[in-house]
Design goal:
It is a single chain. The chain is an alpha/beta fold. The protein is built from 7 helices and 7 strands; from the N terminus they run ααββαβαβαβαββα. 37% of the residues lie in helices and 14% in strands. The strands form 2 sheets. The chain has a 5-stranded mixed sheet, with helices on one face. A two-stranded antiparallel sheet has the order 1-2.
Length: 200
Amino acid sequence: MRPPSHRRFLNPARHLFVAIAIALIPAATMAAGQGDSAPTLNTTQAALFDHDLRRLHSDEVVNLRERFAGHPLLVVNTASHCGFTGQFEGLEALHQRYREAGLKVVGFPSNDFRQEADDEAETAAVCFVNFGVTFDMFSPISVRGADAHPLFREIARQSEAPRWNFHKYVIDRDGQVVGAFPSRVRPDAAELRAAIEKVL
């Protein structure tokens, strides 16, 4: 003979208590910051990260808040047909060197200086095939002037707008631009590495 099922004879009050406790678990987890994929942002972080952008030559759309908020960043405006395009190699080296420490290198192709490919597939080939880029690259945007993407408008407000392709910005975990480096400063320059190491 099978033993009677205890599940049938749950005290109704106990059953209600269990149901309420289960319902409260997600709320408690969120309050503790566990499993929260979209962290609370300060005003500066919101200006930088409250945006969705499509990955380069992809249909995938990324929420910048989920991906980058709270991380140290190296943000770079890039171009495929520029005398500085070879810096992709050095940027990838920085990505490999510091990613375990939390740094996220982020590239934003732009044709503001008339040196980006018209075909996004070509832009992707330059990055991913020619230079083996594995850090985050997004679809082309404007990075200066009235049409600049809000992320770059906030960067310019804190620092300066890009003067040319491969302008590099070091941003700390609080969304503060702590260093801006023009194109001629190579990714392996000591001053750029020092700025990165300060925000890790």
